[in-house]
Amino acid sequence: MAGVQNSSEVLSRAMVPLITVGILIAVLAVGIYLVRSWLRDNDGPAASAHELLAEYREMNLKGELSDEEFRIIKGRMAPRIGGASEPKRKENLKE
Distance of alpha carbon 54 from its chain centroid, rounded? Predict the structure, then answer.
């Protein structure tokens, strides 16, 4: 029977494509990791906080955020930006 092949022969024929696919998946994973880490490194914490606050300000002007929501966000971001200190809460005022 010429149509019946030995199992080791079938395995040896399948190994080359399997190894190639495995290598391609590994290269793709490394590429994705490098691109994501490069994008993360480009975001400086101070610059991104200023940019975020500007975006929130625009959202407020467009009516997507209420004045109160913008005030809360601005108050929470102020310490990260280096502006005014965090607003004192009632619990902190008790002595």
Answer: 20
